[in-house]
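Late entry, written up from scratch paper. The run itself happened at the end of the previous shift, but nothing got recorded in the book at the time, so transcribing now.
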Amino acid sequence: MEFHPEGKERGAHRRDQKEQRVRQGTAHAALVYDAAKCVGWCQFGPPEELPRIKHLRVYSEGTFAPPQWRITCFFVDKDYRGTGVSSAALAGALEQIALLGGGLVESYPEDVTNRKVSAALLYNSRLSMFERQGFARARRLGKNHWVVSRQVPAISP
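Output as recorded:
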């Protein structure tokens, strides 16, 4: 819920809010399964659905055309970290975006080159993963975070 408009709100009701958004079609994610167990996901959506991003003040400096889609959050079960779940989730999100009409996709990953960063803290994954899937660096968001983007063509279902 952190990146949705009501993301500042805290409390047990957040799970119910997320479920309501899913049922209304105002939450999007690519889920990764190991058999029947969901082991990770990648959250995506249009900027109106996900207006809250980390480093928003720096992001808002200057004038830039908004993307059609944002990728804001990854989760990987701790037992599956380092096994490619994030990459699979990103590929799945890009496929869903293509089916939903495609467009400019933007995300905000962290460059961990020559740094040790706990995987549990990489809510928007690693810069290198995005670059392997065709994203280009657009601009810096701080010392270690970047805005990356990629144009995704629409495909028919």
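Strands lie at 28-34, 37-45, 69-76, 103-107, 136-140, 146-152.
(Scratch paper discarded after transcription.)
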